[in-house]
Amino acid sequence: MANNITDYLESALVKHLFRGVAYTAPASIYLALYTVTPGETGGGTEVTGGAYARKVLTTSPTGSSSFSDPGTSNSTSNSAVQTFATATADWGTVVAAALLDAATAGNMLWYGPLTTSRSVLSGDTFEVSAANLSIALD
């Protein structure tokens, strides 16, 4: 997902840094799958039905987290495999993913196309291998 930060998060961070408007990081971030790639303002087409649900990723400044500690780097990645529920109906061809601040609805924070799209059929399980969900600021 490189530096595909959304307009929502860009605005929140600028307001936080330069206007003193508090921004509280979400307790959890949710990984969503898309059949049409979203953009900086959101959009796209999220997978629906067939037992699909966003995958919760925990965040913590000091404790356990779904993301590796970036140290002094400008990037992080998922520290463990993220496995979605087994599809009970066809989900379509997954071409992108996004991070949101809620299990349903919410604000999109980051987005990006998958390196390789994948058709998810009934009975399939979609996984993101460890270190394959990379987040970076350039």
Q: What number of structural domains do the residues give? A: 1
Helix run count:
1
Helix content: under 10%
Low-confidence stretches: none
Backbone CA Rg: 15 Å
Main sheet properties? 5 strands, antiparallel
**Arithmetic mean pLDDT:** 91
- How much strand? 25-35%
Please state the overall shape, judged from the principal axes of the Cα atoms. Answer: globular
Q: How many extended strands?
A: 9
Structural class: mainly beta
What this model shows, in words?
The chain is 9% helix and 34% strand. It is mainly beta and 138 residues long. It has one domain (7-136). Strands 1, 2, 3, 6 and 7 form a 5-stranded antiparallel sheet that branches. Strand 1 (28-36) and strand 2 form a beta hairpin.
Label this structure with key terms.
138 residues, mainly beta, 5-stranded antiparallel sheet, two-stranded antiparallel ribbon, globular
SSE arrangement:
Blueprint: H1 7-19, E1 28-36, E2 45-46, E3 55-58, E4 75-77, E5 82-83, E6 92-100, E7 108-120, E8 127-128, E9 134-136
Antiparallel strand pairs: 1-2, 1-3, 1-6, 4-9, 5-8, 6-7
